[in-house]
Write the structure tokens for this entry.
Amino acid sequence: MWLWPNNQLTKILQIKYPLIQAPMAGGATTPELVAAVSNNGGLGSLGAAYLNPDQLRTTIQKIRSLTNKPFGVNLFIPAPPLPPDTAAKVAQMQELIRPYREELGLTPYAESILHEISFEEQLEVILAENVPVFSFTFGIISPECLAKLKANGTLVMGTATTVREAVALEEAGVDAIVGQGGEAGGHRGTFQVPAEKALIGTMALIPQIVDRVKLPVVAAGGIMDGRGVVAALALGAVGASIGTAFLTTTESGIHPDYKAAILASSEEDTFITKAFSGKSARGLRNRFGEELATHQNDIPAFPVQIGLVGEMRQAASKQNKMECMSLWAGQATRLNRAHSAAELMTELIQDVEKILFSR
């Protein structure tokens, strides 16, 4: 009855188990983490949105030196044109951030604060390196880019936070859809409605998407252990995308104090904020995020806000000041454990099989 471990997802991804390590950008998904998941039967995924083409190429080659199994790379779809009030919001935000910069010993802002990375150049690296799986967030890939990827033999996955977005992705021609529930940590993948209207929980979202599209659907959001994976399968998903559980593994690239904060947190400790990037994202509460909560409508759009707070975040990380760092995490952090990615994969697989097949 249960299509585990062999199902539609394992066939198209050419992996052993329908388990995907979510592609968390910003340094969490190290080559070692990606390779460990792939080597243990899942699909390791690199969150590459902030990597320039040279960094991306080097990282992909490092992953390949650690595994000969399939893996994925995720990018953000380019943001739409900035609204006309951006300059005014930038000036206001600089003033709001000034006390934090002073606290961290940073000098006043340089004239240029925004350094965008070319999506097209990133994609050319993915094509040249023959990456097996490409996933994207924040929108719909252009027909031209999709055609290049498919001609290259790359499997393409898009992110949806509503049924309407899932239908749009299917019509665009992707191969699979990741349904991101409201419990998920990190950035919301929403692109057709305001983010606050797309916080549908995984339990409600996945069966509605499954009933509406014909493509394989992967469940994401709040899935931490075998129970969550089995629940995703019961809802009609063909697999599970797991992010927060991997943040506290040995191979995760996040700050040690960030790992400790996750391990000490509970389901009451996360919130949705635009403070760190200009896009809604779920993470652990801290002083910077809380104090900017009353200024959510004044925050410049992505990626401008990233440029405004990037230096602050880097300095905070070096100085071990958690109150000024982005601490992305989902709602099920009580279930986090400190162990290796291989141990987590083994536990996931054993737990699923115990639930499904034990008598």
